[in-house]
């Protein structure tokens, strides 16, 4: 059976502050620069979820794109859109809300609810120039 990679893209807006309690205030300022501003800042994120799987000979699909859309809404959009990640998302209460950690958070959530196929990659665009790829490693 042929294998294909299915990708869906969604967008969400969220605020955060790059800061870690493991460093002093001065160390945080030096490390994170303007992204450590005490009132935070926001991004319009673009997230791509890529699923790998065999193409079903009956349906012709790896996964129904509607199911993938619903999973992304539940695992990503409902939890992070128009939220302050550091305040509203428990996962970031003890770790910095870097794009890398956000990608891991999305991966973990998608892994738990993906009905079919194998999660292959999360591609998180924090800006047009800054992108994180995460494959569960």
TrEMBL record:
Its EC number(s): 4.2.3.12
Pfam family for this entry, one: PTPS
Cellular-component GO terms for this entry: mitochondrion
Keyword Zinc applies: yes
Pathway: Cofactor biosynthesis; tetrahydrobiopterin biosynthesis; tetrahydrobiopterin from 7,8-dihydroneopterin triphosphate: step 1/3
GO biological process: tetrahydrobiopterin biosynthetic process
CDD domains with a match to the protein in the record: PTPS
Top-level taxon: Eukaryota
A GO MF term: metal ion binding
Gene3D superfamilies (alphabetical): 6-pyruvoyl tetrahydropterin synthase/QueD
Cofactor: Zn(2+)
Alphabetical UniProt keywords: Lyase, Metal-binding, Tetrahydrobiopterin biosynthesis, Zinc
InterPro entries membership: 6-PTP_synth/QueD, 6-PTP_synth/QueD_sf, PTPS_His_AS
Keyword Zinc among record annotations: yes
Family to which this protein belongs: Belongs to the PTPS family.
Protein name from the UniProt record: 6-pyruvoyl tetrahydrobiopterin synthase
Originating organism: Spizellomyces punctatus (strain DAOM BR117)
